[in-house]
């Protein structure tokens, strides 16, 4: 008699298939693809329950058993009346990706409390908790460091997506419970461009509405040494003045409710100033955005997952870094072509981006080698999920915490 295939329910904590930030969506789409690959090897069927923020889109992968979980309320969690707690009991395993970089105390206190409370909830329900590849920290307050270490020490495993996060975990003596991987969005599915290419050089300029408006609070919130709006205008002045170029303004955050964060707001202003430039469409999914970015000859951008979309599809790219997450991730791959907005001046940043365009063939060759490193690290993460799935035969075993 043929043995039935095991069915495993995975909770996807701090993921989203509707976020207006396509970076969060890219993590979620890629996570499912990696889980499916591991499940195929383990001979298991998967279903997913998604817990996280929601937005105005819906790019849930077709043909997958994916259900949106209940809204998470901090008040309901504290009082024990949250439907999230009941839905956790359905899960055999919980993968927490922290929206990529939210497991830190550099944002609002409420955001950090939500990150902490939901992780404690999973552990209290005795479900295996894996922190999927993400930026860990920084934790500037001693209380944050203490509680973060307490949680991570109780996780089944912690995956850092960059060298800086991995080094931090070693300094707090969590090396035995940690592995360094890479951002899961390197596995984001996309449609490769056809061989038909324009005679012009297709330049993709991913404009960050957040940086263009000075941050959520304005007034250079991120402490840039670069005047970002001026840098973008200087690049457009040079590139749009050359008839050999075809310049595209590309959004990666499309939020009707947060105009300071919406890349399209900044792009609309720039398109009015530089009518020669083309506006990319309003993408309906992260995969659609990556497919479009893959058709460029060169890309520069300040949204990290727009840059990862270029990098992972082999497009020469010079990311504009405004956070250590850029430096940690790309430097861990041995890729030094970053325009660092926190230490460079405008002229130096512009020169690096322009030089990257001129040397794009060289950059493409470097990226080809770096892609092998990224794939090897994601394969290690997939292997870990495969072994975990092999050891989960039932919800009762998952509840005991018996995982690889």
What does this structure look like?
- This protein is an alpha/beta fold and 404 residues long.
- It folds into 2 domains: 206 residues, Rossmann fold (3-Layer(aba) Sandwich); 158 residues, Rossmann fold (3-Layer(aba) Sandwich), CATH 3.40.50.
- Helices cover 43% and strands 15% of the residues.
- It is built from 15 helices and 13 strands.
- The chain has a 7-stranded parallel β-sheet with strand order 3-2-1-4-5-6-7, sandwiched between helices. A 6-stranded parallel β-sheet has the order 10-9-8-11-12-13, sandwiched between helices.
- Helix 12 links the parallel strand 12 and strand 13.
- Helix 1 crosses helix 14 and helix 8 packs parallel to helix 13.
- The longest helix has 31 residues.
- The radius of gyration is 21 Å and the shape is globular.
- The C terminus is likely disordered.
Question: Helicity level, as a percent range?
Answer: 40-55%
Helix-strand sequence: EHEEHHEHEHEHEEHHEHEHEHEHEHHH
Q: Which fold name fills CATH's third level, the topology of the largest domain? A: Rossmann fold
Q: Which geometry do the CA atoms define? A: globular
What structural class is derived from the secondary structure elements?
A: alpha/beta
Can I get a quick summary?
The chain is an alpha/beta fold and 404 residues long.
List the keywords:
2 domains; Rossmann fold; disordered C terminus; alpha/beta; 404 residues; 13 strands
List the topology elements.
Blueprint: E1 7-13, H1 22-42, E2 45-51, E3 66-68, H2 74-79, H3 83-88, E4 93-96, H4 109-124, E5 129-134, H5 142-152, E6 157-160, H6 163-171, E7 178-180, E8 201-206, H7 209-212, H8 228-240, E9 245-250, H9 263-273, E10 278-279, H10 286-293, E11 298-301, H11 304-312, E12 317-321, H12 324-332, E13 339-340, H13 346-358, H14 360-390, H15 395-399
Parallel strand pairs: 1-2, 1-4, 2-3, 4-5, 5-6, 6-7, 8-9, 8-11, 9-10, 11-12, 12-13
